[in-house]
Amino acid sequence: GTPGVKLTALYGPEHGIRGVARAGDHVATFVDSATGVTVYSLYGETRVPTPKMLENVDVLLYDIQDVGARVYTYEWTMTLSAEAAKGKKFIVLDRPNPIRADRVDGGILDAKYRSFVGWYPVALRYGLTVGELATYLVGTGQLKADITVVPMQGYRRDMWWSDTGLGWINPSPNIRSADAALLYPGTVMFEGTNLNEGRGMEMPFQMAGAPYLTDAGAIAAELNALKLPGVVFDSTSQQVEAGYKHGGLKVPVLMVVVSDREQVVPIQVGLHMLRAIYKRHPKDFQWRQQSIDRLFGSTRLRAAVEKEGGIEALLPILERESVTFKAATRPYWLYK
């Protein structure tokens, strides 16, 4: 421990304090056996620390690895906690953005669809470190909180995770590799459908499977013919673990592999996968409507996938929004 510092409480986000609880699982408050300190859950009865949870605290420290995607809940746990910390100091220990802090994609959230998978109108792949995101939201008056960011040393915006020299630890159970993190802002959209997004399978967020996807091989060939930058498609079949979509079944799977991470535009990959499947299976394919609109942050993805030419029309609009967002964040960058 640091002299003069007493640890009085810990706070666990989604996936718990050690990042191992399953997505969406209610996490309980408990006493940590290693430290004897109470671990309050911010993904259970409440997602915001209550005054009672904060009564023995002078300073709140946020030290969590995020994945650079608006749909990840950790950064919203950060902003909600910073807001709740009224009058107490909130310190963010900055961490690398594993999918680079100089790439922005996927367009902006429509405020009507504000939720825990998108609390502020930021780009889907937001191209900032978590410290910069906090600085931007406070600086633009969207977040009212007293935040201090402790910046990293030796970090550059154009670093991939592998360039940092840090070991990979899964930030949550289903983001198991740098490639999965890179594709996640696009392939996470399968959560809003009746296809399994790879949970309970070998490569979450690099696979999409359902019993009706018997033509996965043909779909992979069709997608490869589009020559989308940086990815290759394949097909396989997978036994899905119980407790997930299509659990206990062996299902055909469409698989996406990163061939050149420099070139990948995740939302482009996700949209084309969805469109190719929807087009061949309009009756079998189903949206989880509330979920997809929240995940994408508007109704636009759903509308684009269902319409011939819809994706081609939507992608340039998302690109323009992303460019505008990147320019708006520039004054708040902490790294070159």
Summary of the model, kept short:
The protein has 336 residues and is of the alpha/beta class. It has helices at 74-84, 130-139, 178-187, 216-225, 266-280, 289-296, 300-305, 310-329; strands at residues 9-12, 30-31, 38-41, 59-62, 89-93, 105-108, 123-125, 147-150, 207-209, 231-239, 250-258. Helix 3 (178-187) crosses helix 5.
- Counted by DSSP, the helix tally is 8
Determine the oligomeric state from the structure.
Answer: single chain
- DSSP strand count: 11
End-to-end gap: 33 Å
Strand order of the largest sheet: 1-3-2
- Rg (C-alpha, Å): 20 Å
Output the helix-strand order: EEEEHEEEHEHEHEEHHHH
Helix content: 25-40%
> What's the shape?
globular
Low-pLDDT residue spans: none
Beta percentage is 15-25%
Mean pLDDT comes to: 97
Coarse structural class:
alpha/beta
Q: Specify the biggest β-sheet.
A: 3 strands, mixed
